[in-house]
Design the sequence.
DNA sequence: CGTCGGATTGAATGCTGTCAATTCCGGTGG
DNA sequence: CCACCGGAATTGACAGCATTCAATCCGACG
């Protein structure tokens, strides 16, 4: 795969928007300088594959902007999304050369990359980096396990509601609010992508959205915009733990 | 909850059976001595709850012997197992006081414990410990994501076969072999526990085991012992990725 | 021998998937 | 500006798989 390294990739970490949330958060200034010298950026357009499951992956990265999806699939084509990488999230695995899942850019996306062997070296020398990565990995593990509950036990309607709750919480967090009523949610994905996340078919997704609309739990403005009259009602539909 | 600390818990780490695989693996001798001085053991009988989801958890631990199950549940009682802790696995989360899932001893079990604040201290000072924990956490994340594929996309029959493949691989690994034919698998759990892992009902588990038996993919010796005439055939049934 | 929990089996319901037809919407070109 | 196109989404009919509810079986243990 051609490395589309951006020219002048040495943008300063000082001004990096994801610093407070990324792996590099918490690293002291002298270590940040080292990171700054080794990083390089790569950009992807929506729909582009970053790595295929089973392929070699010689770098690790932080998502600077955009969204990436982690998916795993069976030989016959059945697909399950197993993770979402949002701004600041970490991609790749120190100590493993082969990617265990396919990574696709869901939107246009920019990554801040490090060559894997170099990054592994850094981990042994920079405890702050290792600890931040551990913390992030533990968070992802919790998210994955919550999703297991959804996939294993929730009905189609509950899965849709759960996803909407998740998205609503995120939109609210963006503007520093806790979710209240009349939230507008932008669905950042097609029905098929939603289905692949929830372990459903796209037809079922469509039907359950229609059902939630009919029951006045949500209002649909066009295909991709949802407004929620009562957040509490939506949470009730999601069968929260 | 009463701490049932074993008297004379200061068993030597030298002779500890899980040393090669646990968090402490890779720590240099001088650091092991520190760990040895701080550890204490706790034992649980099969079925006993170690912590409830939402409860405070003031320690972290390695499983010395036995099996523990991590589960999450909905208000109405639906339950999904989200992890299995086997010999050597790590329990608890540095930096988080509240347990996100319920932990139950599936068999009689012994833990090698550390008080959480002390352990967090150690992590910052012992890079080998932090790196081993990171590695183990990344492994668990991969396992969780594989399971998401199973829960989201596989049929009941495929889920059962997948579980048997997993157990067969583990039994074989124990004796240092790769799985071949005529493997004997011991099911370490009830039908209900299997169902909770696979996101099924216990009736479906029972039916699919019967179906696999009828199709001569497996042989049932009593309720809890399965032998596999052809491992390849079993793998084919599991819809491997 | 009786009991109790776990496991199996049966019948019926219902949710979700499958297949297929149709509609909606955004973009493109005449 | 409008007609057309193609992909996304919706809707309908039907089939099938897993769940639900219920009855029975099995095996360990007193």
Sequence:
């Amino acid at each position: 795969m051609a490395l589309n390294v951006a020219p002048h990739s040495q943008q300063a970490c000082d001004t990096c928007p994801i610093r407070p949330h990324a792996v590099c958060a918490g690293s002291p200034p002298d270590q940040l300088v080292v990171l700054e010298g080794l990083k390089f950026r790569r950009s992807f357009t929506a729909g582009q594959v970053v790595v295929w499951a089973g392929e070699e992956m010689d770098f690790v990265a932080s998502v600077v902007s955009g969204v990436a999806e982690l998916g795993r699939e069976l030989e016959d084509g059945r697909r399950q999304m197993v993770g979402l990488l949002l701004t600041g999230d970490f991609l790749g695995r120190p100590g493993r050369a082969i990617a265990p899942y396919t990574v696709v850019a869901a939107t246009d996306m920019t990554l801040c990359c490090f060559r894997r062997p170099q990054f592994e070296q850094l981990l042994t020398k920079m405890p702050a980096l290792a600890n931040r990565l551990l913390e992030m990995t533990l968070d992802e593990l919790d998210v994955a396990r919550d999703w297991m509950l959804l996939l294993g036990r929730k009905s189609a309607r509950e899965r849709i509601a759960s996803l909407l709750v998740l998205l609503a919480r995120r939109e609210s967090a963006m503007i520093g609010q806790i979710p209240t009523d009349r939230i507008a949610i932008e669905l950042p994905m097609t029905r098929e992508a939603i289905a692949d996340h929830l372990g459903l078919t796209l037809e079922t997704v469509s039907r359950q959205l229609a059902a939630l609309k009919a029951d006045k739990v949500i209002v649909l403005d066009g295909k991709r915009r949802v407004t929620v009259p009562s957040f509490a009602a939506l949470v009730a539909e999601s069968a929260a733990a």
Notes: The two ends of chain B are 43 Å apart (CA to CA). Residues 155-156, 200-201, 203-204, 207, 222-223 of chain B lie near DNA strand D (CB under 10 Å from a C1'). Chain B touches chain A through 46 residues (CB under 8 Å).
